[in-house]
């Protein structure tokens, strides 16, 4: 090593040591050259780090990450010559945690890559172990979602959360808020399902005293309450077209007016929306405004269904038990966890939580066993005697064709796991026709 290179490295290490975030200097062969005090404290475990491989310290691996199925930011940075970011599970002083890793190549006086600096940021909004609150998971589907969350959180981009009901979209929205620059501001959640035009405007924009009968005082709207923070619009796919126009105006102009008011007021919030509906298909069916769709869909994130992250079920079960059980310290038996992991849970995390809460009330001892779960598991109600069954759809009397269609559409929607355009194809109608039929029976 030349004197010039040695001086360059010494200055680099000195600079990094004064920074609060954990950072290491590495060579191209994955060896740690130096670690700052924050890294030594978080990941070092009091042991000497210089000369050890990064993958051994972080993962307890014997080979580089990319050779054992992980994405390796150092290798990617070597190949591209550019900074790279990944989300990994790293060993820390508190156990395994989700860590955002950013690798930056450092060039010498000749413009050649001499070292790599890795910065570690522990993700406090999610846990890879059982936890009493927040997001929990470690499966690939969960980590992929978490990575997208942590990339978009520091920005002010509008986020659209897509996924089945019961997948924890509000928890994800709250985690994005907590990881954002608006974390000190309020998080305001609005359920758009069932909103009437009058209620929507009064709740969202507030109203002036005397604006209508019963308005005895000025009321702050939720847009104003969310100022400086995050506004979360849940089930946005349920908004009627007339209300979609009002929301679009708010987003396009950044202003609103209280009901009964004259002044236009500035809005200052970060928008996160969520839906279990297929908004793209609704746009094609002209039941959701195209311009609003592109306003809210700056950065889409899909929340995976529970069957897509079945490896997390045991971890989620232990976390949910800690949250709902009246008796502290109770655990599942091995047979109970094995049975839970094999279930599909069409109602996702919400269904799993309900089952665990029921079982916890049924159990008297220190463990929740398989028998407690099986006894309290959801099962479809039996058909009445004499009912005619057609692949799970049944009637027990002669009914009008219109009523029969309504019942069949409900059954088909609840038992179809794919997209709406696929269901429309199987039913032999256009997607637009299907949405219109579903709207008539208020079925989403």
Name the features:
five-stranded antiparallel β-sheet; five-stranded parallel β-sheet
What does this structure look like?
The chain is an alpha/beta fold. 39% of the residues lie in helices and 20% in strands. It has a five-stranded antiparallel β-sheet with strand order 2-1-5-4-3, with helices on both faces. Strands 9-12-15-8-16 form a five-stranded parallel β-sheet. Strands 6-7 form a two-stranded parallel ribbon. Helix 12 packs across helix 14 and helix 14 (348-362) crosses helix 15. The mean pLDDT is 87.
Q: Name the shape in a single word.
A: globular
What is the total tally of β strands?
Answer: 20
Rg computed from alpha carbons, rounded to a whole number of angstroms: 27 Å
Biggest sheet record: 5 strands, antiparallel
The helicity comes to 25-40%
Q: Mean pLDDT score, rounded?
A: 87
Separate helix tally = 18
Strand content: 15-25%
By secondary-structure content and strand pairing, the structural class works out as alpha/beta
For the termini, the CA-CA separation is: 67 Å
Which consecutive residue ranges, at least 5 long each, have pLDDT under 50? none
């Amino acid at each position: 090593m030349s004197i010039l290179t040695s001086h360059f490295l010494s200055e680099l290490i000195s600079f990094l040591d004064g920074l609060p975030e954990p950072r290491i200097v590495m060579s191209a062969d994955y060896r740690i050259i130096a670690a700052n005090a924050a890294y030594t404290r978080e990941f070092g475990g009091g042991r000497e780090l210089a000369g050890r491989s990064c993958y051994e310290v972080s993962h307890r691996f014997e080979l580089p990450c990319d050779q054992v199925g992980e994405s390796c930011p150092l290798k990617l940075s070597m190949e591209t010559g550019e900074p790279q970011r990944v989300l990994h599970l790293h060993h820390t002083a508190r156990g395994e945690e989700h860590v955002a890793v950013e690798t930056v190549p450092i060039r010498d006086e000749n413009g050649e890559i001499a070292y790599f600096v890795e910065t570690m940021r522990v993700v406090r909004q999610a846990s890879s172990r059982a936890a009493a609150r927040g997001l929990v998971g470690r499966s690939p589907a969960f980590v992929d979602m978490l990575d997208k969350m942590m990339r978009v959180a520091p920005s002010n981009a509008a986020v659209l959360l897509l996924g089945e009901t019961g997948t924890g979209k509000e928890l994800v929205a709250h985690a994005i808020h907590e990881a954002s620059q608006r974390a000190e501001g309020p998080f305001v959640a609005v359920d758009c399902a069932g909103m009437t035009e009058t209620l929507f405007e009064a709740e969202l924009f507030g109203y002036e005293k005397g604006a209508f009968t019963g308005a005895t005082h000025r009321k702050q709207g939720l847009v104003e309450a969310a100022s400086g923070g995050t506004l979360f619009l849940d089930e946005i796919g349920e908004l009627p077209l007339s209300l979609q126009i009002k929301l679009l105006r708010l987003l396009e102009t950044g202003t609103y007016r209280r009901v009964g008011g004259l002044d236009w007021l500035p809005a200052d919030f970060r928008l996160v929306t969520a839906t279990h509906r297929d908004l793209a298909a609704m746009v094609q069916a002209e039941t959701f405004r195209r311009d609003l769709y592109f306003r809210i869909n700056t950065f889409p994130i899909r929340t995976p269904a529970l069957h897509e992250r079945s490896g997390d079920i045991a971890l989620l079960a232990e976390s949910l038990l800690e949250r709902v059980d009246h008796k502290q310290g109770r655990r599942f038996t091995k047979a109970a966890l094995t049975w839970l992991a094999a279930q599909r849970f069409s109602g996702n995390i919400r269904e799993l939580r309900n089952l665990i809460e029921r079982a916890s009330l049924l159990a008297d001892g220190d463990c929740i066993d398989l028998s407690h779960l099986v006894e309290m598991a959801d099962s479809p109600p039996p058909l009445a005697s004499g009912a005619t069954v057609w692949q799970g759809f049944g009637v027990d009397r002669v009914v009008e064709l219109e009523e029969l269609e309504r019942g069949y559409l409900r059954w088909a929607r609840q038992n179809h796991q794919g997209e709406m355009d696929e269901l429309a194809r199987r039913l032999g109608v256009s997607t637009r026709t299907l949405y219109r039929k579903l709207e008539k029976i208020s079925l989403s």
